[in-house]
Specification:
hpI Integrase, Chain A; two-stranded antiparallel ribbon; mainly alpha; two-stranded antiparallel sheet; 11 helices
Length: 308
């Protein structure tokens, strides 16, 4: 904690500052030490709040998960670049034009990939999406398919939301409707038997070929066999995180991002995306100066209040 170069005093710390500290720990320390250090620091903040030295706990909800690369959607994230996302969309287009069999497969998967990138929906949400929740300019999220394909309500009240989409995505979805298999539960992207796709099947049949086509496969050594294996650079959640990053880039406020992403509380939003919000601090300062110039004119730097 003392080694880290804190840029603010304790009472000034905000969630994005804690996220930056967490990310620094992960870059410079072992995962286990980083997790224990962050936990200890959080305990210090809790005690400081209890004694009245600080009014809020800026580390609430900010954690380091104990698992591997893709353990949880709310763990530390890798966000693809704009060029990589363009490659992903290009790969989805390309896979659907290779032959008739691939065309049939990617008539389903292509709109799923575009929907994921332009809505920020979770894989469970677009696998469980119903036709009654698709409109000309938006989708409403009301239900999800768990990893075994069982349909149920979203996990929290915050998960129920409306997401507006560009016309190219809704048109792509409605084009697919002509080929969509019949589904007793009215799913937009069902299997041939009308049931929800299993997450494992979507990953194996759609996501891995997509990553391979986009050139986003990396070779890693298997811990079990020692042999090199191919792994995708990103998980399916990468498109969700990319969407959130673009909301942040255009200046969307944290509360709106929370609602759009379906987070049950603002702490999750800061935990996952706080480091991106922190990077906007310079822009916020520039905005403040621009506002002063707009109100007071070009001489605002020399502004002296008049006597009353």
């Amino acid at each position: 904690m003392m080694e880290y170069a804190w840029s603010k005093g304790l009472q000034e710390l905000e969630p994005p500052d804690i996220v930056h500290f967490r990310d620094w720990l992960l870059r410079h320390k072992s995962r286990d030490l980083a997790r224990r250090t962050l936990s200890s620091f959080h305990s210090v903040l809790i005690e400081m709040k209890r004694q009245g030295y600080i009014s809020d706990d800026p580390a609430a909800g900010i954690t380091i998960k104990s698992g591997g690369r893709y353990e949880d959607q709310n763990s530390e994230i890798d966000i693809p670049s704009d060029a990589e996302v363009r490659d992903i969309y290009g790969a989805a287009d390309s896979l659907g034009s290779k032959n008739e069999q691939m065309r049939k497969c990617w008539a389903r998967y292509r709109p799923m990939i575009y929907l994921a990138g332009f809505s920020g929906m979770r894989p469970s949400e677009y696998r469980g999406l119903a036709w009654s929740h698709v409109f000309d300019d938006s989708v409403t999220v009301r239900q999800r398919a768990d990893k075994t394909g069982i349909i149920g309500p979203v996990k929290s009240r915050a998960g129920k939301r409306t997401i507006y989409l560009p016309a190219l995505v809704t048109e792509m979805i409605f084009e697919w409707q002509d080929e969509c298999p019949a589904s007793d539960i009215n799913l937009v992207f069902p299997t041939e038997t009308g049931r929800a796709q299993l997450l494992s099947n979507f990953y194996r049949r759609a996501w891995l070929p997509l990553m391979r086509e986009a050139g986003l496969i990396e070779a890693e050594k298997s811990k079990r066999t020692g042999k090199k294996i191919e792994l995708p650079r990103y998980s399916p959640y990468a498109l969700r995180h990319y969407y959130a990053s673009k909301l942040i880039a255009i200046g969307t406020d944290a509360k709106t991002i929370q609602r759009t992403m379906g987070h049950s509380n603002i702490e999750i939003t800061f935990n996952v995306y706080g480091h991106l919000m922190k990077d906007r601090e310079g822009a916020y300062k520039s905005t403040a100066e621009a506002l002063a110039r707009e109100i007071l004119g070009t001489s605002c730097a020399k502004y002296v209040p008049t006597a009353r």
